[in-house]
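Subject: Sanity check before I submit

Could someone independently write out the C-alpha cells for this chain? I want to compare against mine line by line before I put it in a report. The sequence has 233 residues.
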Amino acid sequence: MTHSASRKYTCIIVEDEPIAAEILENFVSRDQDFHLVAKCSDAVYAGSLLNRYDIDLMFLDLHLPVIKGFDFLKRLTNPPLVIVTTAYHQYAVEGYELDIVDYLMKPVPYNRFTKAVEKFKYLMNAEEVLLEAADREHIFISSGKKQIRIVLHDIFFIESLREYIHIHTKDGTITVKMPISRIEESLDPKIFVRIHKSYIVSKLKIEVRSASMIQVMGKKLPIGRTYKPFIEL
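---
Independent answer below. Compare away.
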C-alpha cells in the first residue's frame, strides 16, 4: 500500500500528564501527514475511541491511571501500531510481545519523535512482497517490479512486527510486508532457528546465549517459552 496524498494517518495520544500530552500534540501538529483524532488521559476512553474510529497510530504512555499501558494493549484484539512514551527504561523487554514500533523516553526531544514517526510511516508504506525463490545461498523477494536478492550468510536475525518483517543483514535492514512464518519455511533449519514468535536468528551469528536470551549484533533477544524445548544450537 502506498500512502496517497489525500489520506492522513489518524492517531490518538493516550497520556495522563497534561504537559506531556501537550508536547506530543504540538509535535504531531507539525507533521502534515497526521490527523490527531483525540487526546485522552486513560485507557477506558482510549478503548472507546479505538472502537469508534479507524486509528492508524497510538501514542501510549505506560503509566496510566486504573489500567496500565501494557495491560490495556494486551486486551485489544486489533490494536493500531503503537509508539510508547515512558519515563522508565525497564519496559522495553515487555514490549517484545506487543509489536511496539518504538519507545520514546520522556522528556521526548522533537528529533527523537520524528525518528519514531518515520519508522511508523515506513511500515505503513511497506509493500506486500512475494518470496520468489530460495536456494541454499540466497533468497529472492519480489516487491512490485523490484527483485531483492538476499544472501543468507549475510543475515544476522529476522524480526517480526505484526504483518511486517525486518531482515537485519550486514549491509543494513530490509523491511517488507510478509509474515515471519512464510520466510521461516524457506530458510535452512541447520543455519536458522526460531527463538521467539518475533525472532529468527542465524546460528552462525550468535555472540552470547543464556537460557532466556540470545545476543546477535549486540542486541539481546528473548527466547520465547514455547520455543525453548525446540532450540538446538
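---
OP: Matches mine. For the report I'm noting this point. The chain is about 20% helix and 35% strand.
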